[in-house]
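Ticket #321: bound-state structure for adenosine-5'-triphosphate.
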Amino acid sequence: MTSLSGITPSGRLTLGNHLGALRRFTDPDGFYFVANLHAMTTKHDPRRLVSLTREMATLMLAAGLPPGTVFVQSDVPAHAQLAYLLECTSYVGELSRMIQYKEKGRGRPMTRASLFTYPCLMAADILLYGTDLVPVGGDQDQHVELARDVAIRFNREYGETFVVPQLQKAALAMRIKDLANPTAKMSKSDVDDAVGTIRLLDPPDVIRRQIMRAVTDSDGEVRHDEQAKPGVTNLLEILASCTDGDPVELATAYSTYGALKTDVADAVLAVIEPLQKEYARLASDPGGVDAMLAAGRDRAIEASRPRLQAAARAMGLAGSL
Ligand code: ATP
Ligand code: MG
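RESOLUTION: The complex was predicted; output attached.
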């Protein structure tokens, strides 16, 4: 099983991204990429995209992802090339049903065409590497379904070319919530200075302060109860995730919110500080980072070439892409 995952540089990485994604990207045969092509479907600032892409790639390396697995999506032209072939395999009807497009684009003339077609790019991301299992958070289910439908249709119309991926539902179910608004997910695209969003590269004292100010409730009891006590439950989930503990059991050790918050802050910083140190070390050697990303790029180009070529030939493109 090949593991594959892309993260869109739509903002600076959060604690949620680390605990829910980066930390689990451990497959030495995996493909982990900064999905910068996906960050252009809505209005974007090119200079910010450059810096977010570099920061994210460096953080992925700093998080200890296996060497050679990390690359930048746009460095591997096969993604955009296959995406076009898949646009020629998909229907307007199925793309119109995509939730993102329905919510952010439909009926608005100034919507970028790429917001409509990007599920084909995502299908390309998946299908290029012969990935059979795609672990996703629930918000991505629909996209993986589309990748499946497109792969099945392509194989039927042009001959067996792609592995049809399976959906691994709820594989990434754990969700860290916003500290200031614990019924909402913590997201990297939240505004830059959102008080409830912990950024992996924020100064440790800022992170500690954010945790100490996390919204709780007024009944004073430390208990795991997502409905009645979302704030306290989120803190317990974070603590459990950082210490490999059980959130329900951990609750019994605390009688005050203050003590819980102090331990959460210590546990989060114990995870984040080594990451920041490694990030600083890597960032001070840009040539070294370039070399690691080039290795990831070359491996991804090699691995994706056969499927891209096969798809192009099957569709009637002579020569090679
Ligand atoms: P955006 O606001 O751009 O959607 P995001 O923070 O939700 O940003 P994604 O790019 O959607 O990040 O997802 C990247 C990875 O991080 C995915 O594997 C996703 O499951 C994981 N992830 C995102 N947010 C959280 C969270 N709050 N808790 C746990 N995992 C998360
Ligand atoms: Mg998201």
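RESOLUTION NOTES: The pocket of magnesium ion (ligand 2) is lined by residues 139, 187 (CB under 6 Å).
TICKET STATUS: resolved
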